[in-house]
Design a protein that fits this description.
6-stranded mixed β-sheet; 5-stranded mixed β-sheet; single chain
Length: 426
């Protein structure tokens, strides 16, 4: 049975996704919440031409990294004006009127407006601060719903790679084309497969209205304004978990229970019956689902395999290194079969640990050396298939000449270890 457990641990909010008897995903968040997904009016502090990037002041002493390679279109706050579709204040949704547009076109006839220190631009936080690096922001604004994502950076209609029903995709594409504006694109999420076209279009309408009001508001707000605050991570977990996967949502916190019910009534009324408030003075929710044990295991350097082998997981500044060892294995198979068995078991456990610990960036795996090319191929195909199941984009790149397997996993949130260390006052 798959459950989403939400509780408090050491004064922070802990979200655990449980599958069967094992936690498969953990997230620890401060009461104040993460800035991930927030949208601000930021001020350009300086341009770093050597790395083709800028650093944006978000206010409150917070500075963010902004890639000029990835962000070629900037949302200058002074180029946005009050007004939403149907209002007289703009020539187009949320943008300044035609006269001001003409004036700007004359100013920038020689090319697009360049970013300069002091400029105020609308940006969204797309990556948490990781280790010594600043949070990452983008002008490619995206607003996420349960069934689709509205994107400013790309204007096409795309589909989750996990959606493979061609006729259904084409049907949804045609329905979305009738509602889509040229200013934004749409990504249809995996959850949409369980929804009707009417539900998907209704959500798109809500996201579109939010998008235009946000840009409209940006035209008359001061620098460092928080234009949009993303939901707490536990609400994001409710939204992002596939509908057919999650069978129950359990919390022992009254305020969180009320927040969940409010969100579900507004956005996922079909899931209201899955929410349960837990109250048992004799056995805490954490003890009932062995949450504390899962947290401890997710922080351990060594992970034992059922065969007697083990993994050593070493996060470093530049990458995460995972070493596979035969350990106490004493099977009766040949050496070749033994190595293949341990490596395949290790591949499954590594794919699991990547998600549990939220390891991201570059990951290098040192499997036990295998000589037969067919064994290497079997390992790589199995490992690749396992990593594709991860909700966060995970790519098995290749096996090097030294037998090291290179993996990349998209960076979104801090690793679980960093989440724990940030608030650890012990």
């Amino acid at each position: 049975m798959n459950k989403l457990i939400i509780t408090r641990m050491d004064g922070r909010i802990l979200t655990a996704l449980i599958s069967g008897q094992r936690a498969i995903q953990l997230n620890l968040e401060e009461e104040s919440g993460s800035i991930l997904g927030n949208i601000y009016i930021g001020k350009v502090k300086n341009i770093a031409k050597n790395i083709n990037s800028a650093f944006i002041d978000l206010g409150g002493g917070l500075t963010a990294y902004y890639s000029l390679t990835e962000n070629r279109r900037h949302l200058f706050a002074d180029s946005l004006a009050p007004g939403i579709p149907g209002e007289e204040s703009g020539d187009g949704p949320g943008f300044k009127d035609a006269k001001r547009q003409d004036a700007d076109r004359k100013k920038t006839a020689s090319g697009p407006r360049l970013l300069r220190p002091g400029d105020e631009i609308v940006v969204q936080v797309k990556g948490d601060a990781v280790k010594t690096k600043d949070p990452v922001v983008t002008s490619n604004i995206s607003l996420t719903g349960r069934y689709c994502v509205l994107t400013l950076g790309r204007c096409q209609i795309g589909f989750s790679s996990k959606l493979s029903d061609g006729p259904w995709k084409e049907q949804i594409r045609q329905a979305l084309l009738e509602e889509k504006d040229r200013d934004f694109g749409i990504i249809v999420r995996t959850n949409a497969m369980s929804a009707s076209s009417e539900e998907i279009l209704e959500e798109l309408k809500m996201l579109r209205e939010r998008y235009y009001r946000l840009l409209s508001e940006a035209g008359h707000r001061t620098c460092h304004t928080l234009l949009y605050q993303a939901e707490p991570s536990y609400i994001g977990s409710l939204r992002d978990t596939y509908g057919d996967f999650m069978e129950e949502i359990v919390t022992d916190q009254t305020d969180i229970f009320a927040g969940i019910q409010e969100y579900l009534k507004a956005c996922q009324p079909q899931d209201l019956g899955r929410v349960r408030f837990y109250e048992d003075p004799l056995l805490s929710l954490s003890k009932l689902y062995s949450i504390e044990k899962a947290v401890d295991e997710a922080l351990q350097k060594r992970v034992w395999l059922k065969s007697g082998g083990y993994l050593v997981i070493e996060p470093t500044e530049a990458m995460t290194v995972i070493d596979v060892n035969s350990g106490k294995y004493s099977g009766k198979k040949t050496l070749r079969d033994t190595i293949l068995k341990i490596n395949l078991e290790a591949a499954a456990e590594i794919a699991f640990q990547l998600r549990l610990r939220n390891l991201s960036g570059i990951i290098v795996v040192d499997f036990i050396d295998m000589t037969p090319p067919e064994d290497r191929q079997e390992l790589m195909e199995t490992f690749t298939a396992l990593c594709r199941k991860d909700p966060v984009k995970t790519t098995v790149v290749d096996m090097t000449a030294l037998g090291l397997v290179e993996v990349t996993r998209k960076k979104i949130r801090k690793s679980f270890r960093e989440q724990v260390q940030k608030g650890d006052k012990r």
